[in-house]
Design brief:
Layout: H1 3-11, H2 13-47, E1 72-74, E2 97-99
Antiparallel strand pairs: 1-2
């Protein structure tokens, strides 16, 4: 196609009407979305109960609660129950670990590389 054809297509009245209709439809959709967000914000403000100052969380009477660290070890998974039946999911308890006997944190061994493939000599 030649440049003259493009100019003719761009100047045609059918093309201008189609562009105008598409613009108007886009404007209508954008206005509907803005209206929907504003209505939703108003509904949320009316429905949501905002707690007052006395309902806000507060520090317990005993002072702030601190983080507790402990070492956990896995529970042994028995294959069968004492009766000889297989174990079903409802027979298990909620936690698969328990507090470990040794609560001392692990430390790096002197002379170790620190990570697998770290490039060090490792334990020699």
């Amino acid at each position: 196609m030649k440049t003259a054809t493009y100019e003719l297509l761009a100047a045609s009245s059918d093309h201008a009407i189609a562009v105008g209709i598409a613009f108007a439809c886009g404007l209508i959709v954008a206005c509907a979305l803005i209206w929907g967000v504003r209505v939703g914000m108003r509904v949320m403000d009316k429905d949501t109960h905002h707690p007052g100052l006395e309902e806000q969380p507060h520090v317990p009477d005993g002072g702030p609660v601190h983080e507790m660290r402990e070492r956990r070890e896995p529970d042994e998974m028995p294959v069968t129950t004492k009766d000889g039946d297989r174990i079903l999911p409802h027979d298990l308890h909620h936690a698969s670990t328990r507090t470990g006997k040794d609560q001392n944190p692990r430390r790096w061994s002197p002379g170790s590389s620190g990570s697998f493939g770290g490039g060090g000599l490792g334990r020699t």
